[in-house]
Amino acid sequence: MDIMLFGTGDCYSKYKKWFEGFHITALLDNDRGKQGTKIDGYRVLVPAEGVRENYDYIFILSVHEAEIRKELRELGVENSKIRHYHDLHTFLAENSAIKRLPVRFYPYGESSRTLLMLSYDLNPSGAFLAFYEAAVVLKKNGYCILFASMNDGPMRKKLTDSGIAVIVDPNMQIGTCHDIDWMQAYDVVFCNTLNFYRMLSKREDSKIYVWWLHEPETFYEGINAGELRKLPNKNLHIYAAGKPAIEAFKKFQPNTEVSLLQYGIPDVGVYNERHAGRECGKRKFAVVGNVQDYKGQDILIGAVKLLDDDKRSHSEFFIYGNKASKYAEDLMQEAEELPCVHFEGEILRGDLLERICGFDALICPSRADTMPVAVTEAMMMHIPCIVSDAVGTAEYISDGRDGIVFKSGDTEALAKAVCRCISGGVDLETMGNEGRKLYDRYFSMEVFEKKLLEMAAEWTGQETKSIVSKGVC
To answer: What distance in Å separates the CA atoms of residue 195 and residue 136, rounded to the nearest whole number?
Structure first.
């Protein structure tokens, strides 16, 4: 069987091991710097060239599934020959290629562990940070925690430094809860993100499963919709970080109860007077998020183009986030004529907070977003936020008082919002202070801890062994 793999980044590194034993004819990638080279001994081809060679399937090893599938279809690839890494379990079972990989355990001290938390990876995404803070809260309040992940990552050390034991088991990438032997010892299993819909499809009826969803509708494009619709709900408690995540899930299971569980973000206490931009006569705006279609950075570029020369000369826009996609490449080319726009790439979260705390405003132009952490962090630091009405946080903002809300996808409306900030149409300092009140009311750790512990008591019951005396773990 001839297989091509589309994508040579993070997802490729995580999933390439499952293709050992198959004939990999080539790798496909839109990154011009990789095209014409070899990775792991495989040729990296331009997609338009690669699809002219022999293949039985093209596997998408990228989070940009919808974008890449559309590209392949436009290149003439049959939809039945396009697979995604979410399809791996079925594909490997069909070809009798399922194997067991070693499990790595990173203990912290010695203790009994009765509450299992499952994460897709150990990278500092917004969803992971929310889950990490949940683990810290639960441990602090007497729960014994084991944190397990499909993929390793830099946040493993942060977990073990916090006194939380970690398991990295790559078999979770293709297995179900029923298939993972060591998982059977835990009475309560707490899963984070949509990535666990396959694992939850087959599980033990005697256990309690908790599922925390963070994804808006666009993230459902790459999943097996039929499998999600048939997902059994017995002993499954489903929560979502915001209304967009609830609405997205209910399109597949309209009669399933989904409760709201907003995350909490620790108050880092970083707040600087925002004079840096004003001293040079410019307003500084930050945009945070991987550069991809649903995050809407193209809407920002369109809005900046609508500004007159004077407004552009008195403003700067800094875009922070991974820019390794064709969408990002095309957008950066389009923005070359706009010297006030800067694509900064990814930086460490601590460095990012230090930078944006001196900005005049944060812009979130997403076409769909549940409750972006960057917006919450900006509010925490008294930074005014301009958000589209497709962002879950917009529900809490009163336009012009504690933030600015514009219609999703409307470049003219975003341009007008930016002008209000540049020309003094709004009091940015007052707006930032009012935004901080939203953080205190909805996203502080005190609010999150109270809500999470109420829910955890429901999952575990007062008599279960999942609650232990403080100081054991």
So the answer is: 22
Residue 207 has pLDDT above 80, yes or no: yes
- Report pLDDT for 424: 85
**Other beta carbons within 10 Å of 96:** 6
Domain for residue 468, yes or no?
no
Structural domain of 45: 2-94
pLDDT of residue 108: 53
CATH code of 415's domain: 3.40.50.2000
Q: Are residues 292 and 329 in the same domain?
A: yes
Q: Report the SS3 class of residue 417.
A: helix
Percent of residues in the chain assigned helix, strand, coil, to nearest 5: 40, 20, 40
Rounded CA-CA distance 459/212 in Å is: 13
pLDDT tens-digit readout, 84-135: 998 888 888 888 777 777 777 665 544 444 789 999 999 998 999 999 999 9
CB-based contact 193:211 (threshold 8 Å) = no
Q: Which residues pair with 89 in a beta bridge?
A: none
Q: Where are the beta strands (DSSP E) in 248-389?
A: 259-260, 283-288, 315-320, 341-345, 361-364, 385-388
CA dihedral 108, 111, 117, 121 (to 10 degrees): 20
Q: Partners of 38 in the beta sheet?
A: 43
- Around Cβ 33, how many Cβ atoms within 10 Å? 9
Q: How far apart are CA 440 and CA 430, in angstroms?
A: 16
Question: Which residues pair with residue 386 across a beta bridge?
Answer: 363, 404
* C-alpha–C-alpha distance, residues 9 and 293, integer Å: 18
Three-class SS state of 83: strand
Residue 472 domain-assigned? no
- In Å, the largest CA–CA distance within the chain is 67
In this structure, are 200 and 280 located in the same domain? no
Q: Is 187:459 a contact under the CB 8 Å cutoff?
A: no
- Cβ atoms 312, 341 nearer than 8 A: no
* pTM for the structure as a whole: 0.80
pLDDT of residue 274: 46
| The two structure tokens encoding residue 439 | 């953080």
Whether residue 430 sits in one domain with residue 385: yes
107 Cβ contact partners less than 8 Å away, ≥ 6 residues apart = 165
Instruction: Tell me the sheet residues that pair with 80.
Output: none
Query: Is residue 280 scored above 60 in pLDDT?
Result: no
The count of domains in the chain is: 3
Query: Taking a C-beta distance cutoff of 8 angstroms, is the pair 292, 327 a contact?
Result: yes
